[in-house]
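tokens incoming
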């Protein structure tokens, strides 16, 4: 992938061998940003797990204190009385049969999906479409629930889902550069704390191997992860 001059200039300002405390890393990421738009800020972590083993999968959700800065279009797949509950909570699209058919026909104009258990027989048919896109609702992450209103409200409030990839990496959006340092720091702490709490019992040795902070167009800023446990408790 070709790297632009501005990205190379920003990267040159960073000492890649020097690990920075989380707050300082966020400061640096904001300092070297160069895009003209409001960039997203991402925290990436490499974990000491082997995702090939089911008992070492790291997966979960966290509600960021200050949201994501993104407007999330939520599809609520449900029927009966639960439709009104989902609408009142702010769902952008509510229904079941018609939306299952629309998705099968190629419609994907939504960012998150929640469902009630009674429609999962139909939703299950969408696995090949929604699964690869990370949109398939799951009971493990609260995406399949009778509390459909709460599920919708949580997503609108800034709930994000994370899952370790095949290389042992997990990452999440923690806001926009316009949030400023303090809000980004609180969001980053919430995400990192959630990942630490999700440590599998089967994971042995050093759990957190590497952490970095980056903006959409900026380089990764290495974070000193030795004190992260104390950091996220602040």
């Amino acid at each position: 992938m070709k790297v632009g001059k501005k990205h190379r200039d920003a990267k040159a300002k960073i000492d890649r061998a020097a690990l920075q405390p989380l707050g300082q890393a966020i400061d640096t990421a904001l300092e070297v940003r160069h895009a003209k738009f409001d960039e997203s800020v991402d925290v990436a972590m490499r974990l000491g797990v082997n995702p090939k083993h089911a008992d070492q999968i790291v997966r979960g959700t966290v509600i960021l204190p200050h949201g994501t800065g993104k407007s999330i279009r939520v599809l609520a797949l449900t029927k009966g009385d639960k439709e009104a509950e989902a609408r009142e909570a702010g769902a952008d699209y509510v229904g079941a049969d018609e939306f299952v058919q629309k998705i099968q026909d190629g419609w994907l104009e939504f960012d998150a999906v929640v469902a009630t258990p009674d429609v999962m027989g139909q939703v299950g048919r969408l696995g090949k479409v929604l699964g690869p896109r990370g949109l398939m609702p799951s009971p493990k992450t609260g995406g399949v629930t009778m509390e459909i209103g709460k599920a919708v409200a949580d997503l609108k409030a800034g709930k994000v889902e994370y899952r370790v990839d095949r290389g042992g990496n997990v990452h999440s959006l923690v806001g926009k550069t316009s949030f400023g340092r303090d809000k980004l720091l609180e969001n980053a702490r919430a995400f990192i704390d959630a990942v630490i709490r999700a440590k599998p019992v089967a994971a042995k040795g050093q759990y957190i191997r590497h952490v970095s902070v980056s903006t959409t167009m900026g380089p990764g800023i290495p974070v000193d992860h030795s004190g992260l446990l104390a950091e996220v408790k602040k």
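note: The CA atoms of residues 116 and 149 lie 10 Å apart.
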